[in-house]
Write a structure and sequence with these properties.
The structure holds two protein chains of two kinds. By secondary structure, chain A is of the alpha+beta class. In chain A, about 25% of the residues lie in helices and about 20% in strands. About 0% of the residues of chain A have low confidence.
Chain lengths: ~900, ~220
């Protein structure tokens, strides 16, 4: 040990929240002499790994102290923009930056608010959504909210379907009780994905207990390596396999949970020859509603019509007991018919389940085997094991409540979902659980708990900060009060993410495509290579002239050249970031130095349903984020920047935008009026608002100072919260997607009038599998399926700049390599370390070093995460690995025709290239 | 007492938290690791097993490094911890050659930066000067966080039970794959796990009698 030890004047551990990915785990930070030197988890909190922490979280110190952090605002002086163009940055002051921004902002908002985009602004360059900015943005007026960034590849179909079937953005097995679970291209429970640390600890306990995971994945990655069985699969064929298993369960084994199907789903709803529900008094008339047009906090909405009908015209079911049709929730119903042929008001009709049962017969094991490459006996065995393990009819006693016990689950995420058949494939996954009643019940498939009754003892006082629920919505189906990213904002009146209810498609000439494809929210279009052509067909124009962004879309979505064109088309781009990125260096006019998550306070983050809360009976926990290190240099969080803009813009417009924002904050959190600060005309710090929120929600003795000291509040979950579906009367429409029958003729009409093509075949209410563009490439040269996958060491596009993560990335065979099946590689004359070029059938190319693996489907090529960085602002990440995303076609054809999410796989050829001629990366 | 660790490979997900938490806690310079995660695969398609093996100093009962150290710098404590007294270490590196597990590193450059050419950051400076100063030109390795264990014992805490008396990598593991305790006590957490789950050390054929066991 060295003798010259420095004097220690501070040695403390402080509670806050991580923000290296969207999960916001509780953490403790060791601060010595004002310098944060170590991070660890919080043993007593359920929001995280209960003591442990992932490597990304541990490496957060190297975000805080990276010498490449932005320290002053920068102004581009080179008028030319583009990939690799030197921006010739000039350091400017904050006032100079605001002088550039505010007059432009005022002019454009007055001309047409859609000219300004706050698509993904704020968040400290972490994907954490719940910053304080939305309220200030809302106060500044309407604006465009197109999504840029990796979110486009995220659960465009799985999130809305999670909402429809589980009241939740994310879905996992009920790890405490599940015994047999099917994973389709998902990494949940393996240090990546939604609630990564919560699922990691829960999945590990489940494995230790003996839970068997069956992982369908083209690659033997982390989840597959922990599995009881890895089942290699051709990308995009998951739906065929699931439906074949459903066929076996329904038509061969006959193991179904009839009480569940009758009482909790739309299985008994009668369907007429027009494929629509037969209703009490005639066809559905639709229900008027409003849709928010932006992403977060936007106060602009439009009138829409939801598919369905009000209480005066309910869907009908057949009561076997009385031999007559009744409305679905008639209390006199003795028994619901699931099968048979009936007639009501002269309309011949059948229960939805009957239609499904017949339809499933198309999905033979042999057909599924042929497309997926999975042996038929494997499909048959897994289906049979799943059905038997479901233990249909069994119950479990949890704290005195006798609940159905269904210890099987099935989940999907981007690997299985990110294809042109996403909407149906995600519903197929929901269906297989629903058939055996394994939905929101002990052991089954579950979402983040969608119901809280409030902090014990404060149930009556809490105005809703920690009191939310799902409820019986249109046509008796599950509707969410709170869903999607955002804080306490209620979604009761403004469904956010395409979950229930679903509007009719309408051709309103909107550039965001949400009008023509309302079943999903995330669209590729703004960065699409065919966007001008599509917009021309739709008679839509992209109005955005000024964009505020805190993401790196150039690297994180798809075809880089198409994205560059899109970014170039925006006249003025303002970026708030921690580091310069490929996007900021190529296209920003102004770059603002953001504060990182260890340099700010927040009370919002812990408030969401999403990401924060453990599944099943695990306790609730609510954490705050507190400043560990004060921002140095001229760094300023995007929250504060938005406040500064609101002040300056308010002066110009003659409005008190600050007061408007503060009131919106307090109202939407929501916070009891008795705790509202007196003076609403000034900047209310996160600590002030947090003090009001925590006192309002947890009682006056639990203010901000209490939380700064203790870090978090933890309280027991009730059975009625954890397994809410068993206590509430709503149903889930997972047996029959009736709304698609309403959409189909409208979509066909839009196709005909505009020339865009949304394949109407996929607008069938019967859950189906469809081949996608990746299955239809005929040129034999492009013989391989290429995709990306989550790396356990990385999240989003900024984790490659931290040296500790870089060291680990260099030590494993995957992160910085392109991987493929060993035998396939050998046939192509490749060996480990060869420089290869991957070329798509559309001619896009990426280079990298190859690593041959046994654990790889022979028809596939994998490229990890978001690598291949070339921004000068991130020297550690520079030049390492390959970027998969740039290979992805960004065209309408490569999307799901219902949800609109991007196909995230592409057919390629692989060839060895000469390092000396081509130049290694 | 013989302190040892059990690593449950059924729980481990290869997240590198053990490796990186150790680097943070000991302010280790670039390219120096007291613990690592080794990744490979066995089998042929489609019957493949991804092998994830977290490794660290085995604190061997018959430690090769102790035997070859010419100055007595590498010592074995009564609790089984093998450590380097850096004041005695002359940097001859015999131990590095002798260790069959490649768990020792020569600390040649205490000023090596994480961001090359950009100077030492505050994190590196405070880490290396206060948090865990390392003697340059000596051999360094995992010592089961013995400073922390000793401090914990002084506070009356239980080793391997209380976090402040438990090695950092054990605490950092998000899936609780690591357990730390007394191998000599047949009723300890580690002894029970080894017995119940047939724990095994790495390369037992070398006769070094490691104190780190693995469970499959």
């Amino acid at each position: 040990m060295q003798n010259a030890k420095r004097e220690i004047w501070e040695d403390v551990w402080l509670h806050t929240q991580c923000s290296r990915c969207y999960n916001d785990c509780g953490i403790q930070v060791h601060r010595v002499n004002g310098v944060a030197v170590e991070i660890q988890g919080v043993p007593d909190s359920t929001h995280g790994a209960m003591g442990g922490l992932c490597s990304k979280g541990l490496a957060g110190l190297q975000v805080l102290y990276d010498p490449n952090r932005l320290n002053t605002p920068l102004r581009r002086t080179n008028p030319e923009k583009g990939i690799g163009v030197d921006p010739k940055w000039k350091k400017i002051t904050w006032e100079e930056a605001y002088d550039e921004i505010v007059p432009r902002l005022k002019k454009l908002l007055e001309e047409d608010p859609r000219k300004v985009s706050f698509g993904q602004w704020g968040g400290g360059s972490s994907p954490s959504w719940s910053t304080g900015t939305p309220s200030y943005l809302s106060s500044m007026g309407p604006y465009s909210g197109f999504v840029w960034g990796g979110g486009l590849q995220c659960g465009g179909a799985s999130h809305p379907i999670g909402g429809i079937t589980h009241g939740s953005w994310s879905v996992v097995p009920d790890f405490k009780y599940s015994n047999y679970v099917l994973y389709f291209g998902a990494s949940k429970g393996h240090a990546a994905g939604h609630s990564a640390m919560i699922t990691a600890r829960m999945a590990a306990e489940a494995r230790a207990r003996g839970m068997k995971m069956i992982v369908f994945d083209p690659m033997c990655r982390v989840a597959a390596s922990k599995a009881f069985e890895w089942v290699p699969i051709v990308p995009g064929t998951d739906g065929a396999v699931i439906l074949a298993m459903c066929n076996i369960i329904v038509n061969e084994l006959g193991i179904i949970d009839k009480p569940f199907l009758k009482m909790k789903t739309n299985a008994p709803y009668l369907v007429g020859p027009d494929m629509k529900y037969v209703r009490e008094n005639g066809p559905a008339r639709g229900v008027k509603g409003h849709r928010a047009l932006g992403q977060q906090g936007e106060n602009r909405s439009e009138e829409i019509t939801y598919i369905g009908d009000d209480e005066t015209n309910k869907p009908m079911v057949w009561d076997v007991g009385e031999g007559k049709a009744k409305v679905y929730d008639d209390p006199t119903i003795k028994d619901y018919a699931l099968e048979g042929n009936f007639e009501y008001r002269g309309i011949k009709c059948q229960p939805s389940f009957q239609l499904l049962k017949e339809h499933l017969k198309e999905y033979t094991t042999e057909m599924a085997s042929k497309v997926s490459s999975i042996p038929p006996e494997t499909i048959r065995r897994i289906a049979t094991d799943f059905a038997h393990e479901a233990r249909v009819g069994s119950t479990i006693n949890i704290n005195g409540h006798i609940l159905p016990y269904r210890p099987v689950a099935a989940i999907i995420f981007r690997g299985g979902e990110g294809h042109g058949n996403a909407y149906h494939t995600c519903f197929a996954v929901s269906l297989i659980s629903a058939l055996v009643g394994a939905v929101e019940t002990p052991g089954g498939t579950t979402g983040w708990p969608a119901r809280t009754l409030g902090f014990p003892g404060r149930e009556e006082q809490d105005p809703g900060g920690f009191k939310w629920s799902v409820f019986k919505g249109l046509d008796g189906f599950l509707q969410n009060q709170r869903f999607g990213p955002g804080s306490g904002r209620s979604n009761k009146d403004v469904p956010y993410h395409g979950e229930w209810p679903i509007p009719y498609p309408e051709w309103k000439h909107q550039p965001g495509l949400i009008d023509i494809q309302p079943a999903g929210r995330f669209k590729y279009i703004v960065g699409g290579s065919d966007r001008d052509e599509v917009w021309k067909k739709l008679g839509a124009t992209y109005p955005v002239e000024m964009m505020f962004i805190s993401r790196n879309p150039l690297m994180s979505i798809g075809d880089r050249d198409a994205l560059a064109n899109a970014l170039k088309s925006i006249k003025f781009v303002v970026v708030s970031e921690l580091f310069n990125t490929e996007t900021s260096e190529g296209f920003a006019d102004i770059v603002l130095p953001d504060g990182c998550y260890l340099e700010k306070d927040s009370w919002h983050v812990g408030l969401m349903q999403n990401f924060n809360h453990a599944w099943g009976m695990d306790d609730w926990s609510y954490h705050i984020t507190q400043t560990i290190a004060k921002p140095t240099h001229q760094r300023k969080s995007a929250d504060e920047v938005t406040y500064d803009l609101a002040v300056r813009l308010g002066k110009e417009l003659g409005r008190n935008l600050v007061r408007e924002a503060n009131e919106r904050f307090l109202r939407t959190a929501p916070i009891s009026k008795e705790y509202w600060p007196n003076d609403l005309d000034r900047y209310l710090t996160a600590a002030e608002l947090g003090d009001a929120f925590t006192k309002s929600t947890f009682g006056p003795e639990h203010g901000w100072d209490w939380f700064k000291k203790h870090g978090f509040m933890r309280w027991p979950k009730r059975v009625e919260e954890a397994y809410w579906l068993q206590f509430l009367p709503m149903r889930i429409p997972v047996i029959y997607l009736e709304w698609l029958a309403h959409m189909k003729p409208i979509v066909e009409d839009i196709n005909q009038k505009t020339g865009v093509f949304m394949d109407p075949v996929q607008y069938t209410p019967l859950i189906s599998w469809f081949p996608c563009t990746i299955h239809k490439v005929e040129d034999p040269e492009y013989d391989l399926y290429c995709y990306s996958y989550r790396d356990i060491l990385h999240s989003s596009s900024q984790t490659m700049e931290q040296p500790w993560l870089d060291e680990a990335s260099q030590m494993n065979p995957w992160t910085y390599n392109i991987t493929m099946n060993a035998e396939t590689g050998r046939k192509k004359g490749l060996k480990d370390g060869d420089l290869i070029e991957v070329e798509t059938y559309l001619g896009r190319k990426e280079k990298g070093t190859v690593k041959l693996m046994a654990g790889h489907h022979p028809l596939t090529v994998g490229i990890s995460s978001t690598a291949g960085h070339f921004a000068k602002g991130q020297p550690i990440a520079f030049g390492k690995g390959s970027n998969f995303n740039t290979l992805l076609p960004m065209t309408f054809e490569h999307t799901d025709p219902v949800a609109g999410n991007l196909e995230t796989c592409v057919r390629v050829t692989v060839r060895k290239i000469d390092e000396n001629k081509e130049g290694a990366k | 007492m013989r302190l040892g660790m059990v690593i449950d490979r059924k729980r481990c997900i290869g997240c590198y938290s053990c490796q990186i938490s150790c680097k943070a806690a000991h302010a280790l310079p670039p390219d120096v690791f007291f613990g690592r995660v080794l990744v490979s695969e066995t089998g042929t398609y489609p019957t493949v097993t991804k092998q994830i093996l977290p490794v660290l100093c085995n604190h061997c009962k018959e430690a090769a490094c102790v035997k070859v150290c010419p100055t007595g710098a590498t010592q074995k404590r009564e609790d089984g911890i093998v450590y380097v007294n850096s004041e005695e270490c002359v940097g001859c590196r015999y131990c590095i050659v002798a260790c069959p597990y490649q768990m020792r590193t020569y600390n040649s450059d205490g000023n090596k930066e994480y961001w090359p050419g950009q100077g030492l950051t505050e994190l590196e400076r405070v880490g290396r000067e206060i948090l865990y100063p390392l003697e340059p030109n000596t051999v360094i390795k995992c010592n089961f966080c013995m400073e922390k264990l000793d401090e914990g014992l002084r506070k009356g805490l239980k080793i391997g039970i209380d976090r402040e008396a438990t090695p950092t990598c054990v605490n950092a593991c998000p899936v609780k794959a690591r357990t730390f305790g007394d191998l000599d006590d047949p009723n300890s957490n580690v002894s029970k796990l080894i017995k119940e789950r047939k724990g095994y050390p790495l390369h037992s054929e070398l006769g070094t009698e490691p104190s780190v066991y693995y469970l499959d």
